[in-house]
Amino acid sequence: MIRSATSKPMDLSSIESDIRSLSGGAGASSKSKVGGSESNGEFLNLLKEGISDVNKGMRESEKASMDLATGKSSNIHETMLSVSKAELGFNMLVQLRNKAIEAYQDVMRMQV
């Protein structure tokens, strides 16, 4: 498993739950008026797609690593590319989560 900068293991379900809490909970309606048109949670769907893509990449890189370690595959180049790609995707997702939390905190600090 890829570890975050804090050297604690981080799973994608915690990221998804953070995003769900920022969007108002799982049971909240995702429709809102923005600029005169309705937004049907397109951003949330895009985010969920991204999370599932990163999760898929991580599973594929773990499988490639296990295949290399057990001798089923001897192509170290493709394995390293797969692991690097998964790590970059995960780091991007963590940074996206951090920016979303930071933006949420900025909004909460605003005085009305």
- Coarse shape: elongated
Strand content: 5-15%
The helicity comes to 55-70%
Low-confidence stretches: 1-7, 26-38
Commentary on this structure:
This protein is mainly alpha-helical and 112 residues long. Helices cover 66% and strands 7% of the residues. The chain has a domain at 41-112. The chain has three helices and two strands. The protein has a two-stranded antiparallel ribbon. α1 packs parallel to α3 (76-109) and α2 runs antiparallel to α3. The longest helix has 34 residues, at 76-109. It is elongated and about 60 Å long. Residues 1-7 and 26-38 have low confidence and may be disordered.
Briefly say what this structure is:
The chain is mainly α and 112 residues long.
Looking at this protein, list some descriptive labels.
single chain, 112 residues, mainly alpha, two-stranded antiparallel sheet, 2 strands, 66% helix, 7% strand, disordered N terminus
